[in-house]
Write the C-alpha cells for this entry.
Amino acid sequence: MITNPSVPVLTSVISSAREAQASWAALSPHQRARKLSGVERYIADSCDELASVICRDTGKTRVDALATEVVPAALALRYYRRHAGRFLKEERIACGNLMLFNKKSRLSHQPYGIVGIISPWNYPFAIPFSEVVMALLAGNAVILKVASATPFVGRSIERALEAAGLPAGLFTYIEMSGKEAVPAFIEASVDKLFFTGSTAVGKDLMARAAERLLPVVLELGGADAAYIRYDADLERAANGILWAGYSNAGQSCGGCQRILVDRRVYESFLDLLSRRVRSLRLGPGASFDSDMGPLISIRQKEDVCSLVNECVRKGARIVARSEGGSLSPDGSPFMSALVLADVSPDMPIMNDEIFGPVVAVLPVDGDEQALRIANASPYGLTASVWTRDHRTARSLAKKMQAGAVMINDHLMSHGLAETPWTGFKQSGIGRTHGKSGFMEMVRTQVIVDDILPGTSRNLWWHPYSERVYNGVKSILAVSFSSSLGERISSLPRLIRFFFRYWSRSRP
C-alpha cells in the first residue's frame, strides 16, 4: 500500500510495475490463471472477515456485503480464470475476397501494460476486484485506487491478492483523494484507465485523458426504469423492486428508481410495494437482522433529502415510508426508505440519479408509453421488464435504451461474470465483465501474412503504367460488373495481370 503518492512517486511505481509486467506477460494465460487460484481459497476462507470490513466501511448490511460483493467476486475470479485462455487465443480471420487469397490474417491480443483502476465506494470490493483480476489475467500490471471512504476494503483486496504470490510491483494499491487521483494517473502515464463513479467526474476524466489519447472505460450513473406489465406476477415484482430499490440503501448505480406500472395493476402493485417498504428494518449493517443500513455519509443523506424535498415541493406525494431513519439533516446517516407517487417529468426523481432509498411509482397506459418514459432519461445503465410473457419481454427489452435489461429481475446482471456491463447515453463508455469486458484489457493486433511463394511485388506496387491501371480495373469488372459479357471478357486480362506477382522487370 502506498499512501498519498505524488506524481513522481506514482511514476516510479509505474516504472517498477513495467518491469514486473514484462515477465508476467511472458507467462501463458494458463500459468497466470494458476497463480491466482490461491485468491479463490483466500476469499472462501475469509468471507466473514471480508463481509465485516465491507460492512464497516460502507454501512451496508452483512447480507448485502456477502451476497453482492464477496460471493460475486469469487465467482467472477473462477469464471475469468477458466476462460482467460480461450478469450486470449489467437484468432484466424476468414478470407474476405478471393482476389487476396494469399493474405492470411490473424488477430493477436496483447496486454496494455499498466492498467489504472479508480473504483467507487458503493461496491468497493466487487467492482474493482473483477477489473483487477481481468487485467492481471490478460497480462497487465495494475494500480488500484479505491474510494477514500472505503480504505479498509482496498486493503482487504490487497491482502487477497497477496495470496497469489504475485511478482513484486505487479499489483499496487494506493490511497489518495479522488480529486488528486485522476490527474495523477493520467500524468504518471498509465496505459489504460478504468473509472466507476458519477457522470460529472467521468466527463472531466475523459476530457483530461483526451490530452494524451489515453483509452478509458467509464461506468457512470443511472436513473433506471422498471416496467411492471399488467400480466406480471405482482408478488415477485414487489419483492424484486424492494430489493433493487433499497438494497445498499439505494446506493446502486444499477438499482431501479423509476417504477412504471400498467394502470390496470397500478393500485395493487403500489399497495404491495408500500407494505413491504413500511416493514423494512433499518439498523446497523453489522446486525444480521437489519434489512437496510445507513447511507455512506451524512452529506450523501443531505443530498438525497434535498432532491426528495424538491420533488415534494413540485407536487410529489410520499405514499410509503419505513420506520426509523429520517428525512432531515439531523446528523445521522440513517434515512427512511421512501415511495413517491404523483411524480411529473420535471422532478429530480425522473431525471437525476438519486442514489438513495427512494423510488417513484407512476402509472402508464401500456407498452408504448412505458418505453417512451423509460427512454426519456439521459441515463441508460439498466432496466427491467416484469411480465409472464417472455417473448414480449424480450421484444420490449430490445427497445429499451439501456446497457443491461433484465426480465423479472433487476440489479443482478453485474453479478453474472459472463455478462458485459455497460451503459448507454450518459451512463458510460466501454465495457467491464464478460468476454467483451475482458477484451477491454488488451490491445487487439492484426497480423497479415503473405503466403504466396516467390513473388517480387504485389499487383498494385510500383512501377505504375496503363497496364497496371487496367489490371486493377479488371478486378472490379470480374467481381462486380452488371454485364455478364464484361465479366467474361475481363477475365483473361485479370489472369495476365495476376502474373505480375512474379514480374522481375518493368511491364
About this structure: Residues 62-88 form the longest helix (27 residues).
